[in-house]
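Q: Can someone sanity-check these two? First one:
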Amino acid sequence: MFRLHELVDRLGGEVHGDGNVSVARVATLEKAGQGDLAFLANRKYLSQVADCAASALIVGPDAREQLAGRALIVTPDPYLYFARVAQLFNPQPAPRPGVHRLAAVDCEVPSGVEIGPGACVEEGVELSEDVVIGANCFVGRGTRIGRGTRLYPNVSVYHDCVIGERCILHSGVVVGADGFGFARERAGAWVKIPQTGRVIIGDDVEIGANTTIDRGALDDTVIGDGVKLDNLIQIAHNVRVGEHTIMAGCAGVAGSAQIGARCMIGGQAGISGHLSIADDVVVSAWTLVAKSIKQPGVYTGNLPLQSHGDWVKNFSHLRHLDALAKRVRQLEQHHQDGPEDRNPG
């Protein structure tokens, strides 16, 4: 439980009203009750505040006067402040150091590391302090895992990968499986190309359940610091994702694509291989990125399913829509002028 002035001392902001009000939980405006701290991030919900039973509210400066008389924390970004308070109220469980008797471990284990039942950690693995390896995880030989990183149950990390500090890998994540690399014989058979690169993951990365990140073919697949990946995402071999980029569920990134920093990739978006996306790009959900994006901005594209030949033909027409529209306007104007205007003599 925290008093409002204690929260402000830790997280910033300004207290308006009684700074000794105590709060123990965060809640929505609709569900909050005594002892809860609610937040108002959008003024369109201001009408709900009258019926809100929260002990205190997180609000922006523009709502301060209208809510005078209530206990408030005023901050420029209420939603971000709510996130920081929620972390404070709900910290990650501390590791319970030790190796479970049903784990198979062939490397040195620092005193602060927790390894759960059924986990397999191979030789040459380097574990830093406060790492948690959940039940039934696999960590391949030569892998390095940084301080404070947590692998939830059933995560698989193949050999020689590098995972930074304070990362979270949710259940079912697979890091370092072979990339999809094959050469084709004339007869049609496929010849596997050994995938000898690694996966390198930076600090403060979170990876959602059942997401896969393939190892590089020759060079490495690289995930930058602060990247957040949702569930069921596919990152192919040799992809590079810039720092603080975020991707929603079911997005797919094909091999050797380069994604910049601070990008936002919507759910089920597809990014073709061997292209680059600039920093600060937003790709809307269901969008197919088929060519490089060189400028920041919001990009959206969606067409119904059709044969490839029809798609190429129709897309070619789409590229010339502006010129076609201009030609139509000229024809309409020509028609409106009438024959006597066109032939004054």
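And here is the second, same format, sequence then tokens:
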Amino acid sequence: MSLRSAGHAPQSDLDLSEGAFLDGRITALEGAESVPVTSPRDGSTLGSIDSAGPEHVDQAVAIARRAFESSGWAQATAANRGIVLKKWADLVAQNARDLAVTISLEMGKPLMDAQNVEVAAVERCLRWYGELCDKVTHSLLANEGSAFAYSFEAPAGVVAAVVPWNFPLTMLTWKIAPALAVGNSVVVKPSEQTPFSALKLAALAVEAGLPNGVLGVINGRGPVTGQALGRHGDVDVLTFTGSPATGRAFLKYSAESNGKRVWPELGGKSATIILPGADVKAAASSAAWAAFYNQGQMCSASARLIVLEEDADEAVAAACEVAATMQPGDPLEEATVFGAIASAASVAAIEAKVADALAQGASLMAGSPDRTVVQGLESGSYFAPVVLDHVDPASRIGREEVFGPVLSVIRVSSEEEAIEVANGTRYGLAAAVWSNDISTIHRVTRSLRAGVIWVNCYEEGDMRFPFGGVKESGFGRDKGADALKKYTDTTSVWMNLDV
């Protein structure tokens, strides 16, 4: 379908394809249920998707397997694969506006964040792995008397990537770029909330020179389409970002099918800790921004602000100032910094968690416990940033992921208590420590159980450094050179030289 974006946004004509992307083209799935896709911006229907059933998953995997074996991609030189990935990055840059508007309509992200942050990250990721392709070796040579040995890494085969809606193309590219770089074929299942941007990205891959069938995109509901991929006996590796419950389900599907490797990158309940001597206002402002950015819909969001009692009032005031600058607006307006929540169901879930926190004794310092109505977009899904003070770390809001713009302030009496509270959830994705004392920084960072720790900052990083967590945040790691190994198999070859 063709859709002209409304409001004061750039007048882009968007072709929102409704089928799957198989064998290098958009393909209607015969017999598939048609499922409407609603924009959180205004509640309008963007289009519909063909929701893939098990038989359609079989079709997609068979195409990927055939492409792996016969398209020449797996046998191509690393340098040639790199050329395609870099050309793909060029096309992403050329189509940045179209991709950004699609993302903004699908999940409510502010247009300029979609273009300048997310699409820019996609371009960087593709270009980084394209440059890396022919610069990494995974071989080991040995000359042991009459024996000579070597090892090599080969592409695993067919990779399934199941990705979320909050960063629909960033998460997707973090997974498929390294998988494709080493020669695999990939079948992607994006969230049913954000299907169109993935289809657009896949079409650009073929335009860049990726052989038909090497990259497929099928849409559908997680319990049907996702489960079919998880249980499929011809999928060699599955990579997933999403909830811990779904991550455990994929591990179960693997155990009950072919024992495929599963790389889960799951949720978080990350904390910012402000220690004595730190710049309290800067730390609290950073934590608030990291709690509210992307409408709080980040697994790494700084959901908890842990601060000493004597600094708490200053920290709360600074957080409230940030909340006041990040109020909901039309995501297609270029001046908007805080857009829509991804769905009405997500808004209802956030409302319930805030209400529960207030019932358990938390104080509402900024925001409202109810959805926000944006003028002219009354049917949209909006929720203003919330700051809660005096949060009990043992309460639900203190332990469970909200996935919305809610910052919980937890007051403590000592560094030791701060560490205990920070570690006191089932998650271990990220954390931040604010201190001006180097000994304190080293001591505290070594005591925290988190896959990523920021010091006197938040959300810094680049493609060189892995991203992922510990505990129930999973053990999957995206980004970095080591991500290539997730999608390869190691073979050792020993030769007897005396024959």
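A (reply): Looked at the second one. The chain has 14 helices and 23 strands. Confidence is low (pLDDT under 50) at residues 1-12.
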